[in-house]
Input
Amino acid sequence: MSSALKITLILSLLLSAGSHAAGTAPRKTLAPFASEQALSSYLQQLQARQAALQKEQQKLQRATAQSMSAPPAPPASPAPMMAKSAPAASAEAAESVTNVQTAGVDEGGIVKLHGKHLVMLRRGKLFTVQVGGNALQPVSSLDAFAPGSDPSGSWYDEMLLDGDTVVVIGYSYSRGGTEIGLFDIDADGKLAYRSTYHLRSNDYYSSRNYASRLIGSKLVFYSPLSLNLRRGDPFGGFPALRRWRPDAVPSDFKRIAPATRIYRTDEEPETGFGLTLHTVTVCDLAQRDMRCEATAVMGPQGRVFYVSGESVFVWTTRRGRDSGVFRIPLDGSAPSALKVAGAPVDQFSFLESGDGHLNVLLRAEGQGDAMWDGARGRGDMALLRVPLASFSDGRDSAPASSYKALPGGGGYGLQNRYVGPYLLYGHPGNAGRRQADQAWPRQPLYAVRWADAGSVQALSLPHGVERIEALGNDAVVIGAQGKDLHFSTIGLGTHAAIATRYIRADAAQGESRSHGFFYKPQTASEGLIGLPILGADERPGLNKPAASVLYLRNSGLQLTELGALAARPGQMPDDGCRASCVDWYGNARPLFLQGRVFALLGYEVVEGALKDGQIREVRRISYAPIASPVR
Output
């Protein structure tokens, strides 16, 4: 481990509590503000500190400027460094088409299933296509924003379904935060606009994580709200909600987190550094008029979050000091916290396990997962494993015995995933397009049994680790070697072992997000894999049309190619796009529905059929918002 991480671990051992309560309830919780007056007084104190710091900075700057024209003298003390501001239904209830991290916690995506209809979100519009009854027919389309509103400056990226309610999640730079559009869908697949709400938030975009979750009828958001203490009214940055109307104004926002739902730790904010309200908002979709409540914790900046079935875990980092992890329950009860060391890679670094523990893969240094920061990180690695009951009021630290040092180091693009009893992680290596005739260094895939923190296995792969996915109780690791795309199956029994490898020549992944992959189990040891691919010399592009979806059969960890369903070549039709005209979340997905196989490829839905061990195209439709023939 790095010396900084070792020192932090030693300090955490000295500061940690000696015993843990039984069960998963925290021993103590964070303290809320007692009243609006108490919260206001606290913010005024912070503003006074910031004002004093600003005056001191200006004084130092003037002294520095004067010294530039004066005779040489010892250099003035530098002004304190300022932190960079952060950029800005259960799985059994219906047939899922989303590759989720946690069973029962649905994630916002670009395609969902409603009865006998697919619902797609693309380029600022909603679409439905009938697939039930052996059909394949476009049905309905509708703008994904409010009628009469201006969608410019807004991005509509994610969609969720709760019963007959379609929820579209977007971000509006012009209207001030997360935009939530509610639409009705009937049994015939017809869409109708219901209402739009705006939730005050910072920009949520991450190249790895998703903004929204759905647990039952509860819509869940995490947003880090950066507080500007230098302006007159810091409450202007507090969690708030408004219903959109054509003449909506900023004063329509109504706070949804009173002082008694705002918490703080014993740590004083770092003078001169950002203060963030780590906010979890839960909206009830069971009522037509959506209602939301928020819980917020004051703390340093941070962006990595993980949603389990009961809580949101938020990881924060203080400059040169311990990190912290908040546990914010979804039932509105008081949050708890724990001082920790290091930084997780992304949401896949977390597992709230059934034995009442939180497990987190850590690097010595990390930048969170805002934008593309999840791919960055460095330093030594460790696995943190702590009982949920050890969470407290933020004064306690995870003991040094809770960390297990791991090999591998944190390099660019690290991939990690919990599959069954194992934590798997590895690096892409030089997965950029090497020439096929160049030597390729073997890459390690590390396998750790997280429950007992036993020995670490290093499995040698002839390709990089660009994706790790579950195949039931086993796993598949996907990555490039030169111009070829490799799929290595990993048996996860008493020991982890490489089972077999399939190679797709002259190919690359067409989607890097977790939702691009899907595995449809048929038995405990058999199933179908789908993954969008491109040619080896192509690179996934935000405005690039989809290429094809490759299908493989898994039979006892032996992979057999079934074929691919490809997009029709040619230019994308002119759809008159007005919003979200870049496919930030991709445009291709494999779909397995009621024994049928589909590929979503841009504005096309292609159906294939298995015959004689091969998948062949049966038919396709275009659902583009222009006149288009159906065949």
Residues 148 and 449 are 55 Å apart (CA to CA).
